[in-house]
Amino acid sequence: MDTEPAIPFQRRLEALIQTSPLAVIEWDSQHRITTWAGTAQEMFGWPASEVLGKRADEWRFVPEDDWDVVRQAETTMESGQACVNRNRNYRKDGAVIHCEWYNSVLTDPNGAFQSGLSLVLDVTERKKMEAEVRHREEFAHLLLDTSPAFIVAIGHKGQVLTMNQALLDTLEYTMAEAVGKDYLTTFVAEEDRAGLIAVFQRLVESRQHQTAINWIVSKSGKRFLVEWHAGPAIGGGDKIELFIGVGIDITERTRIEEALRASEERYRKIVDHAPIGIFRSTVEGRFLTMNAKGAAMFGFASPEEMTSSITDIANTIFTRPEQRCAIVERAIAAGDFVSAEVEYRRTDGTTFQANLYMRAVRDESDRLSCVEGFVEDVTNRRLAEEALRRSHEELEQRVSQRTAELSAANERLQELDRLKSQFLASMSHELRTPMNSIIGFTSLLRQGLTGPVNAEQKHQLEIVQSSARHLLTLINDLLDVSRIESGRADIELAPFRFEEVLQEAVHTVQPLADRKNIPIVVDCEPSQIPMVGDRKRNFQILLNLINNAVKFTGEGSVTIRARVVGHDLSVSVRDTGIGIKAEHLGMLFEAFRQVDGSAKKVYEGTGLGLYLCRKLLGLMGGSIQAQSSYGAGSTFSYSLPLELPANHRSEGLL
What we know:
By secondary structure, the chain is an alpha+beta fold. It has 5 domains: about 5-125, Beta-Lactamase (2-Layer Sandwich); about 145-255, Beta-Lactamase (2-Layer Sandwich), CATH 3.30.450; about 275-375, Beta-Lactamase, CATH 3.30.450.20; about 380-490, Orthogonal Bundle (Helix Hairpins), CATH 1.10.287; about 490-654, Heat Shock Protein 90, CATH 3.30.565.10. It is built from 20 helices and 22 strands. Strand 8 and strand 9 form a beta hairpin. Helix 15 packs antiparallel against helix 16 (about 455-485), helix 16 packs across helix 19 (about 610-620) and helix 17 packs parallel to helix 18 (about 535-550). The chain is elongated and about 190 Å long.
């Protein structure tokens, strides 16, 4: 009696299993398949005959990466607990499907695992749908976060629901800071809030998209002008759940547009007030535009009058119509401005000369649309150029005449200078002979060779002899100057030793230095300096410089330093005397020029010494310069080649 009802129940259970939309798989305690029913064959492709009695790892049923999940489920079932596991499985044809396994456990009376029953659901399509949904959501989020446009969702109470990253970055907020804030009072400039409230009212009333432009303000106070496109999101019950706004930052665009408008206005003012005519016309010959200056140039009261009156430019305002045809053709061919000088006719019949600049204008399709250019009235310029040309011709005649006069005067001056130099040379020669006689006979008288002389007479004879020698030095200097200026100065070439010349010069000046108690220090290195050149001129230069140093030094010393530098001799003569003012340094080497130029001179001299030094050094390929600190002394330095070339004699005379 008790077993009879069980039979129909088991049959019903078997029928339920066979007709189940799930795969029904039963396992024994060794995890061998004992039942393969439901949609198992349809789901996996294997018939029951091929899998009954097998474990799952005895054929290609579970992908390698999913075995950890399956092992964990088997362990759970062996412990007597039901579980759910999700893993992939192979079909017989090799395809991979996603499955959910709902596992229950049968135990023996002692609670030990006896068998397991798994109901398997193929969730492959669901997985695909979930992946598609995730992909769409990720794409939507990516689109929102990477879009350069601003996107905001606002609740029906005006609170921020969300913003994309571009808007958050601009406003300098994080999502957590922005969400829940009142959009109008937090982010919209105060002057634009009333207008935006009206936009929201229209959205509610019309439920249609609206546009608006308003300023938004960042956390730090920066302002951005945004063009918004907003619309309502309608939810259940035909209610507006939120508002979506998509905006574009037009701050820079607006600035550029305003700058462009300002530029166009400036351009218009420039054109209207330009001092030349500016026009556009059709290729055929009708004016499209003309500025005020151009209209006045042709005698019209206004640009409008000119553009409406002239329908044939070539025959109306050109005295030679073919000129317009020629310049239009050139402009079209050149693709840039071309120019020509033309003659125009005014409304009163008078004509004027003008420079015409023209270029062809093409549209975006490179089709010829018109020509444009400039007209410059050059009538007054041509008159001025003609007057200037005549003035130039007259000036050239005057310059030519004056040049001839100056040339004649210059030749006369050169002749006078030559005569002067000849006179000085002749007079110097004539004066030297008696001066030498005076010096010689005075020396005989002082020595008593012509008879006894007392002390007073001897003193007077010394004065005569000193004055005669000074006068002879002056005569010799004048003779040197005349020779140099007349190109007859002789430069001798012969070997000599510079240290000997230096010793001789120092010896000559030593008596004057001794009388003034001024030591002369000589620093010559090397001690022997062989040279090839004019010994006499080298002595003359050194003597002049050392004599000047002693003469202008009241106390202190005079130092002479000589060095060999490469192929040149470098000499400096330094004193501790009165020095020279900076403004007087430039005139030191001029002839007959003395720094003490007063009528009552403190120091003797003719002003020829330094001039002769510079000239003689120049003839020998050398140079001289001076440095001085007023009140602290002066240094005169010169350099010249150690050996003059064999042809230097002729070069020095040129």
